[in-house]
Amino acid sequence: MAPIARVLAVCATLVQAFSPPPVPSLAQLALLTPAPNGCANITDRGLCLSSKDAGSQANWEAYRLAGEACVWCGGAQCTDRSADKCMPYDLLMNSQGKYYTTFYAVYDFKVAAFVESKRALSSSLDATCLCTMNSGCHTLSDQFNCLSSKDGRPEGVISGSQVAGQPCVWCAGGRCNPGSAALCEPYDVQMSGEGTMFAENIAKDNYKVAGCQGGKLKSIIQLAPGVSKPTFPLDPPSQAAMSCLKNELAGCFAINDRLSCLSSIDGSTVRSFGSIDGGLKVQGQPCVWCGGGPCTAGGPLASSLCLPFDYLARGAGRAFTSVNRAALTVAECARSGEGNKFDFGDMSCLLPRTNGCNKITDFKTCTSSTDGRPYSFVAGFKAKGQPCVWCAGGACSEQNSNLCEPFDFAVNGKGHAFNSANEFAEYSVASCSPNGIPGPRALPTFYDLHGTPQLVDCGFPIPVWEKVGQVCGFCKALVPKINERYPTCGDYCSKNGGLVCAGASLSTLRTCEAAKAVTCSYQFALEENALCECLPKPGPTALARDFPRPADEHLECLDLAKNGCTAVTDKLACLGSKDASGVKNYRTVAVDGEPCVWCGGGPGGVAGGACTSDSNATCVPYDWMARGEGVVYAYRQQASTILKVAQCSVPDRNFGNTGCLKRQVKGCNTLKDKGTCLSSLDGRKEHQIAGFMIEGQPCVWCGGSACNSNNDDMCAAYDFAVHGAGQAFLTDLSVGRYLTAACENGKPVPHELPSALSNAGVLMMVNCGVPNPIWTGVSKTCDWCKVQVAAKAMPMFQNCSAYCAAQTGNLGCSKAWTSFKHSCDAKATTTCAYNFKAGENALCECHVQGWGSKVEPAQSAQMTPVVIDTVTLAPPVQVTAAPFPKVPEVLSNIGKDCWEACNHLSGLCSFCGKGNACCRHNTTGEGSQPKECRDIPTYLTWHHECVIPVHHVTPEEAAAWAGAQAAAAAVAAAGGSAAQRVKAAGDAAGAAAIRAGAEAEAAQDAFASAAIVARETAMSGPEALDAAKRAAAKAAAKANQSPAAVAEAVVAGAEDAAEQAGVQAAMLAKVDGKSVQDQTVAAAKEAAYAAFDMQQSEPVARESARASAMKVATDAGQHLDQAEETANAAVTAIMSAGDLKLAEHGTNSALRHAFADCYEQCGNKPGMCNGFCGIGNACCRASGGTVVPPECQKITTYKTGHFECVVPQQATPTLVGLVPVSGDDSGPAMDVHAKTGNQDTTGGTQPTSEHAGQGGFGTASFLLIGGGVAAAVLAAGLVLYLLSSLRASRRSKRGARMEEEEEDSDEGTDLEVHAEEEDSDEGTVLEVFRAEEEDSDDGTELEFHRPFGTPQFAPNGGKGGGKGGGKGGGKGVSAPAAGYPHLPYQQGSSAPTGTRPTQLATNPH
Questions:
Q1: pLDDT tens, 998-1051?
Q2: According to the UniProt entry, where is the signal peptide (predicted)?
C-alpha cells in the first residue's frame, strides 16, 4: 500500500472511531449562560464551558448556532477553518466537510454543561467578620488580606461558579490554578472549578480558607514580603502576663533563638526609638519572635529576628518600611488556669537534673527526673521543679531534637514556645509509685485531651461526631473540654447532625462513667469534660403511613414469639405472632408487644427476602420495620407492597347452627374427600393461623383442586380460606367453586360460599310463577316464592311486607323469619311487619295478591343469578331487563403454560377463556407488550400463563396491534420490502383475531392491517388490493370462513383502511394550519380516494368518507351531533366538487413541505415523518448526524443544507446470515428462525448459517436495524391508535349494505380462499404466526413467533435455529424452571415421551 493510501486509511479509521458526545438536554441548556457575542469570541475555558451561543447569527447554512452549547477545544484552535478555541456544538460536531476539513481537537474537547459545586461550603463556617471591600478575591496578593476577606464582586455566578460572598482561599503564596496568576481565589471557583474553569487545582493540598471564630479571624496570618498589615495583629500582654519573663540586658534585638526571645522582655538602656514621649517604646517591652526571619524590611534593625513589641507594632513607615512575613509570637507567661493540668502526686523519689530535662536522651532517666535548672520559666512555661516528660521517643517539638522536656513546656507549649509537636503520641511523665519507686506514668494524648472526629453508632449511615474522646454506647460520647468548641451538650448534639440532646453528665478523661448528671443546657466550664447523649434522627414515616399498624384489639389473638419476631422463619407462624422477647425498646423503636411483619415473600414466584440491611431475618417487629430505617438499620430491603403484618381477622359471620358438623382434630386441611370436608369443622387446638380463625370454623371444599397458592390442600377452615388471600397466601385458586359446610334441619348441607354480591344482594330469578320473575336484593333462593334477603339490602325495605311489595308483580308477604347468614334455615318466626335489626338475616315468603293458595309449577325452573352494575334499588322499583355488560369469561387453564396453545404469542387467546390473555411477567418494562398484558398485578408462574386483563382490549384492537408490530419487525429483520411488510401485517392480524376467539372477524382484520401497511409503503393500488385480499383469504381459510364471508370482510376491511387514510390526511392538513372544516374535507376526500383505490363501490366510499370526517371532528372536540353535521358537510363538499369518484392513488403520499426545515416539526430527530413530510416520507439531512436511520440512507439528491423532507429509497432487501442472539429471558421476546431456501430474486448469495448463540450482526448492522425499528414502531403506533378507534361505529351497518351491493353487482369476487395456493415471489417472507402447514420455496423464510423484541432461539435444534437444526429439525422443547412440573399444553400436538428440556437460559417464555 502506498504511503499516502496508508495515511488516508489511518485517517478514515480515526474518523470512524470518533463518536460525538450526546447532545446536551434542554434542561442542561437552560442552565447555561447566554454568550451574546457567540461561542467563537470566547477565549476563556471557564466562560466557554458555562455558556451557550446567543449571537446574532442563528444558523450557518443548515447548522444551528444560536442556542447551541459551546464546546471548548482544549485551549487550541478547534478546526482548520479558523483560530476559534470555542465553537457551538452542532457546527463543530456535524459540519466536517462543509464548514471545515479537519477537526483538530477531536480527542481534546469538552461540551459546556452546568456542574454542581463539588465541595459545598460547610454550614458551620463563620464568615461574619470577613471584609467585602475588594474587587474580588483574585485581586488580593497577600495572605492577610486574602484570609480576612470574602469576594466583594456583585456577580453571583461567573462561569458557572459562585462568586459573590464566597470566602477567599489563600493558595500558600503560589498560583491557585493555571487559569490565572492569582494567589487568592473565591472558594467555589477554586474548589469546584477544576475541569471546567481550569485544568488543575494547583493548591489542592496546600491552601487555607478565610473564616472567623468568636468574631475574630480564625487563621494564623502570615504577611507577604514587603507588605504591612494595617493594624498590628498582636495585643500587648498585661503586666501579670509578663511577670515570669526575664530581663534581657542586651535587648530583644540581640536574641537569635525562639525560646530566649519568648522568655524575655527588653532590658536594654534604650527607652525608646525616636522622641522620648512619642517614640517607639523599647525598654520594658515584651520581645516578639518573628518566626525565624528578619522582623522588618528596612530600618536599622532589619536583620533582627526578635524585636520589642511597641517598636514592631507601630514602627512601620517610621522606623522601617514594613513588617516582614512572619508568624509573630509575643513573649508572655502561660495564663493561669489554661493548659492541661495534671496531678503529679508525690515526686519525692524523683531526682532533679541540673542540666534540665531537655538534655536527657533516654527513657528511664527522663521518667525518673525533674527539671533542676535555676530558672523557673522557659518561654513563659514552668521549668524548675517540673517532672520530665518523655515524648514517646520522638522530638518534643519542631524547634529541636529534644526527646525530653519539662511538663508545662512539653504539654502546653504548642502554639507559643513551638509550632508543632508529636501530640498524638502517648507521652510519659516521671512519677513515683506508692512504694516510692520512680517510673513512667502515661499522660492523656491529644485525642484524650481535646477529642477527635470519630464514628459514633447513632443511626445509618453511621455519623461522624466532632471532638470525641471516647465512644460510650449508642448515640453517646465523652467530649473532653467541651467548652473549647461547644458550650452545652444541647449545642453539641445540634451541631453534630442536627440531633436532639437526650442527656448530659460531668465526667472525667478516659472514662464513660457519669460523675454528676446535669441538664442538656448546662454551661460547661473550660476544663470540664462532658458525657453527651443524643437522640438519633427519626426514621422515615412513609412506611408507617402506607403500611399502618393494626389496632391493639386486632392483636389479641396472636401467639407470643418468646424469642422475638426475628427468630421466626415460617410465614404463617410470623403472621400469627407478636414479639414477646422482653426487650421493650431498642434504639428508640418499640420491640416487645409489636406484631410481627413478614418480608420473606411466598410461593408462586412472589418476591421477598431479608427485611432490612442489618440481618437476614425475614420476620421483624412492626415498629422496627416502620420507624427503624436509619436508626436500627441502614435501609429497608423490601417494598411496602411485599410486607405483611400479623393481625387477627375480624369474623364476618356467626355460623350459629353448626352442631351437626364433626370436629376434625387434625384440621380441615387434612381432609381429601368432599363429603367429609362438607360435614366437618376444624377441631385443631390452634385458635388462629396467620391471624385467621381456625378453631371451630366450618370446613370449605375448594372444588377438588388446591384452595390457594400456598399448598395442595383441597379443604380449609372457613376464615383462612375466605379471607387469607393476600396475607396468609398469595391468591385463591378455586374461589368460584368454593362450598362451605353448614347444617339445615340438623343435617350437613353444603352451602355456596357467600360472596360480596350475595352479601349486598343481587338480581335473581325466583321460582315464583312462569316465567320466573326477577327479584332484587336476593342473597339465596330457598323455596317457592321464598328467599333470604341480603343483609346489606334489607335496611332499605326494613320488613318483609315492604320487600315483597317492591318486587315485580302484585306481591304480598305470606311469612317472615329470622335466619342464619346465607342459609335457608330459620332461626325464629316473626311477622311480615317486623323491622329487621342491623346484622339480622331475613327470610321472606311472598305471594301474588288475591291468590287463595300457592300455584306450584309443574317443573322447577333453573335459578340463574343476574348481575348488573347497580345492586341497590330503592322500593318500589319496576325491574326491567338490561343488556349484560361485556365481561371476560371465567379464566380457563389457570397456572398452565399457554405459550404453545396460543401460537407462541402474547395477547388475547381463547385458550384462556374469551376476553382473557396469555401473558408473562416482563421485568424489562411493559411498553412493548400488548395492551392486554400490561399492569397485570399478579403472576403465579415464571412462564406464560392465562390472566384476566386489566385493560379491556377487543379482538380488533389486538389484531391491529399485532399487524403493526409485525410490519415493524419486518423492517428490523432484513430491510423488509413493501410486500414483506404487508404480508407480515395481514398474517399477524388474522392470527391474532383467531387466537382471541374472533374467527368471524379474522379476515376483515387481516385485510385492514395489510391495506394500511400497503398504503404507507406506497404500494400501487392494484398491488395493494391483491396483497390485502390474499391476507384476508389466508385468515378466512384458517378461520374456516366461507367465500361469501370473505367478500364481506374485504368490504369491511377496506372501510377500516380508507378511514385511517382519511385521518392521516387530516393530520397533514392540521400541520399546515388548516381549520377543522378543511381537515374534515381532506379526510373525506382521501378516504374516498382510498376506497376507490381498493375497487370499492360508491356507497362504500361515501360511508368511508363520512366516518373518517366524523372521526376528525370528534377528535377536535365537537359533540356527536355537531360532528355528524360537520362530516355530512364535508361529504357534500367533495360530492359537489366532483371529487367522489375514482381518482389517482397516493394524493397524500406526495412529498410535502419539500424546502422547509423539518427538524422541529418531526420531533427534533431524523427519520420517518408521515405527519409533516407526507405518508411514507422522511426528514433527513445531507450531512447526516450521530445516527443515520435506514430511510435517510442512499438519498442522492438534497435541495437544501438543513433537514428537509425526502422520499426514502426502497432498497431491495438482501438476506444476511441472520442468526438469533440469545438475550435476556425477561425482555420482550421474539423467536427468530432462519430457514434455508432458494436465493432471493435479487440474485444475492445464499445466506450462511452460524452456530447458535453467536451474533450474526455487526455493530453497523445493529445501528441500521435500530433506526429502522424506531421509525417502524412510530408508524406502527399510529396505525394501532387510528385503526382501533375507527371500528366501533360501523360494524352494525355493514350487513344491509353488503346485501344491497350483491344485488347491484354482476361481477364476481376475485378471492383466493385457500392459503396453500398462495405463491409469493419475494425473497424474504416474514410470518408473524406459526404456520407449519405452509410450504414456501421462494427463499429464506423468517418466522417471528412473538411480536417485536430481542431475537432468541429455541433449544435442541429448533426450526433451523442451531447446529444440526436445519429445516425439519426438532421443534425444541422449552425448559421450565427447576422443580416446576412443565405441562406441554399445545393444541393438536404433544411432546414425545421422554423428551427433556436442556437449555433453560434460552427458553422463549
A1: 777 888 888 888 888 777 666 666 777 788 888 888 888 887 877 777 788 888
A2: 1-17
